[in-house]
Amino acid sequence: MKKILKYISKYWTSYIIPIMFMVFGIALDMLNPKITGMFIDDVIKDGQYHLTTKLLIGILGIAFSRSIFMYIKEYRFDKTSSLISRDLKKDLFNHIQSLSFSYFDKKNTGELMSRVDSDVDRIWETIGFGLALFIENILYFIIASICLFSISWKLTLIALIPMPFLALVAIKLEKEIDQTFEDISDNTSEMNTIAQENLAGVRLVKAFAREKYELSKFFNFNKKNHDLSIKKFKVFGKYFPLFDFLSNICILLVIIIGGIFVIQGSLSVGELVQFNLYAWMIIWPMRMLGWLSNMIAQANASSKKIFKIMDTEPEIKNKINAIELKDMKGHIKFNNVSFKYDDEEILKGVNLDIAPGSTVAIMGSTGSGKSTLTNLIGRYYDVTEGSVTIDGFNVKDLHLNTLRSQMAVVPQDVFLFSDSIEENIKFACESATLKDVESACEKACAKNFIESLEDKYDTVIGERGIGLSGGQKQRLSIARALINDSKILILDDSTSALDMDTEFQLLKNIYDHCAHMTTIIIAHRISAVKNADMIVIMEDGNIAEQGNHASLIAKGGKYYDIYREQFKDLGLCEEEVV
Ligand SMILES: Nc1ncnc2c1ncn2[C@@H]1O[C@H](COP(=O)(O)OP(=O)(O)OP(=O)(O)O)[C@@H](O)[C@H]1O
């Protein structure tokens, strides 16, 4: 909560006006019991009927002015809390963006969505409605207590007897409900994850007829949510009647003791009624303590979750005085590189020298570490041992933005935004024109199919490219990588869904038009790699073979085995393929 207070303190001046209007409104409210008292003592008891109109106009005027003051107060409080929640959401989102790949490997989208959305909203509710209620309660309590003391200090002390007990009940409630709100917050995020994954993978669920299984998973969390809500209401059910009971005791004491004072003549009937009305003004804040405890507990649970993310340091960040390597040549070197995911060793002492402007193809069995190797170039992960250098500079010393902005990566798992084709491609280069988009699409062999669509480049594609074939999605993501004239291009198994002809043409375009780029192609088909300057065969986290097509065929090793396997059915002789 301390960290939330830091956000609130930034806007403390914005609270001056609403608090001022709150004070005006409360001050006016304090006049009502006084007028009621005068009505009883002066009009009814003493027969001063001429005062009736004045008193009624007073009540009306108070009601009218108070509603204006309270409107301004409400509006300004809500506005300020919206600004605070906007800042919090912005900072949280910014921070999430700064976190490294390894963080997202362990977190799921649903959980992060819950933090950015519902947890921030819960805090927004508390600092909007809750904070206003809290300040209002304190002001009512102080001002009403002063009025009570001015009528009868003895009766006031008696009326205040149940107050410490009420405060104790509020503290106990807050403590008891705190853990329940944390559990609700955790369960909500897990439920969001299930819902988000189920909806994103709805086609897979239907294809395997797993609707029942998915529903039961969701229902389990939904039931847990229901049980936690019941638990929450049970706690409320235990404490809320106590708030009512203790506040009624207060009124009972006022009526009994105040009645005795009236009989003894030390208090008039009008004053007793007036006192009773003021007493309600201090009881009401006490009754609201339950709601406030509830809100504080919710906000506390949410802020713990939010600040756990905010306190996570990105594993990969810029060094102080990081080098801005502006005009990269694209000379990549792996120097005895080892890499571990947690404790699992994936790469084991890899040495590889990739000349600037060359094309390197990486082949190897699944899980042999091909993607991992390329992930180290843009520092998506840091090497465990050894170093990766670009143009002689250790990537750890380079400024992340300048490094990554000179690289174009087409990941294995194609991701497209639910936006137009043009916007999806321009994602990599905001300043690109439609002509640039067309040219990139031409190189990626996507131009023909895009231009056959009714809305061409304005065609809006569904979430993750729904509505397009696998090969079309791959070509769009390659076009997105080609729009930027990057120095390093990495294609991670990005042509696997293309037919041989299209793949051949696309790679030819890359060889012809992107000769200045250092290109790394991860692929499984000989047809995709045979023209590369160097072919690297990965096996179990290390380089088993490297060389060009001809030398590897001549060597008769692993590459040759793959080659024979892929071409055996075609009955081509080696010379024909080579
Ligand atoms: N984020 C990760 N966290 C933990 N382990 C991972 C992670 N990514 C990959 N691995 C593991 O690292 C190993 C190498 O994975 P990598 O993706 O580099 O293989 P690959 O050769 O590219 O495989 P494929 O051809 O199937 O894409 C695998 O055993 C994989 O399970």
TrEMBL record:
Any GO molecular function: ATP binding
Bilayer topology annotation: Multi-pass membrane protein
Annotated SMART domains: AAA (SM00382)
TM region(s), chain numbering: 12-31, 51-72, 123-145, 151-171, 239-263
Keyword Cell membrane: yes
Protein name, as recorded: ABC transporter ATP-binding protein
PROSITE patterns: ABC_TM1F, ABC_TRANSPORTER_1, ABC_TRANSPORTER_2
Domain ABC transmembrane type-1: 19-298
One Pfam family named in its UniProt record: ABC_tran
Compartment list: Cell membrane
Origin organism lineage: Bacteria, Bacillati, Bacillota, Clostridia, Eubacteriales
Residue stretches making up the ABC transporter domain: 332-565
